[in-house]
Model the fold of this input.
Amino acid sequence: MKIFDFNVHLPCNLKSDVNETVLNEYNMNLEQLTKCYTHHKNTLKNNQVHAANFMLFNQNIFFKNDLSSFISNINNDFQGSLISALIDFRQQNVYEYLEIAVKSGIKAIKFHSYHQKISNSDFIDITKICKYAEKHNLIICIDTSYGTSKMYEYDNLKLACFISDFITKTPIVLLHSGGARIIEAMLLADEKKNVFLETSFSVLFYLNSSIEQDFAFAYKKIGLDKILYGSDFPYVPLEDSIAKTIVYFEKYNFTSKEIEKIMYDNATNLILR
Done:
């Protein structure tokens, strides 16, 4: 089965504390990205990953480096892939940064409420950036995992709801499907045609809980064309993620054709839209 992994990160020196590794992602330079991409490439190919959404977390990297060759190499190795850039919406010259990033080949932008400390007062500025993304046909990714002591202070689904009232033409992908708030994420995707749910981390994290059933219900409720597979590799072992996700879908009577759509076809169609 061909795989489109919608959530691939590039650190290769994982720390015992996941948050420490994530923070290190914010400082990865081009040399480190290249080294880690080379390190991960064979793992992706050996697990039938034909394309992926590669995440870049260094919010200044396009000012400091020309990434066009790096991105071109990824696209040559994994045709039809995406490069997503986490955007520092507080940066004064953010639109100049976006212009450079788009010229370099990014196809998506990302916001992460916990790490970027996004509160209600930031929503308007972020929406303005999303309007830029819509104009340039960029996919908008929002981390909607649910947890940490900041889960109420930085409400990622509230951010997604706000953005979706203004952005209607470009896809908005809710990474992690809202986590424990999968039903709320489903309700948003049910109303908004351009909102999609992505499976990474959450489906496996909630296995053997009552929430496990909610994911299957939600995915079927909004229609399987709006579900994208993601692993959160290397934070989640890739082979484990793929195997357990397929077993999970089979457990809830998803057909082989439906599983193939989620694991590959839907993301490809999203990019080719």
About this structure: The longest helix spans residues 30-46. The beta strands are 3-8, 49-56, 82-86, 108-112, 139-143, 172-175, 195-198, 227-228. The mean pLDDT is 96. The chain has 13 helices and eight strands.
